[in-house]
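Hey, can you fold this one?
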Amino acid sequence: MTRGPTLPAHRLPYLPTPLDAFNTARADEARTLLLHCLHSLRWADRIADHRPYPDLDALLAAADEAAYDLSPADLAEALADETLPELPEDTYSAAHTALGAARAAYEARFGHAFVIYPGDVPRDEVIDHILEAIRSRLANDPEEERVTAAEELRRLARGRLRVLLSGAEPFSICGHRHAGATSPNAPTPGK
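Sure. Predicted structure:
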C-alpha cells in the first residue's frame, strides 16, 4: 500500500508570556505596570532598569530587594497610594462599621493607610483577619509599625507582580488605588 506524502511539521507560533512582554516593554510602560504593584517611583525605576529578567522568580527577588531598600520617603510615597482592602460584597454592614472604626483609629495613630497582605486567607475570613491585624498593630510603636507596614507593602507588591506576570488569579482584596490594574483584563506591557 502506497502512502501519500506526509505533511510538513506544524509549528505553533511563539506566544510571548506576560514576563516577555514586561521585559521588552518601553521603560515608561514597565514603570507604569510596576507602580500598580507598589507606588514608589524609586522602586519601580530600579526594577525596570534591571530588565530583562530570566524568569518570574528572578523578578520577584529583585522586587523584594528593592522593597527592602525603601527609604522613609519612599515608604511614605507608597503608603499614600494604598487603601484598605475591599471586602466581599456580601459582607454585613456591622463589619463595615467595625472596619471603618478600626481603620480610622489606625490612620489617626500612624498617619497612613493600613496595609496587609491577604496571603491565603479564605475569602469568608478576610474581615476577621483584617480586623484582628489592625487591632493588634495599633499596639505597635510608630517605628515598629513602620517596619511592619514596609514588610506588608513588600509582600503586597510581590503578590501583585505575581498576579500580573504569571497569569494567576487576581487578588480581590489587595487595597490599592490602582486595583483595576490587577484584573486579568489589564493591559499587558508592550501591547
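The chain is about 55% helix and 0% strand. Let me know if you want another pass with a different chain boundary.
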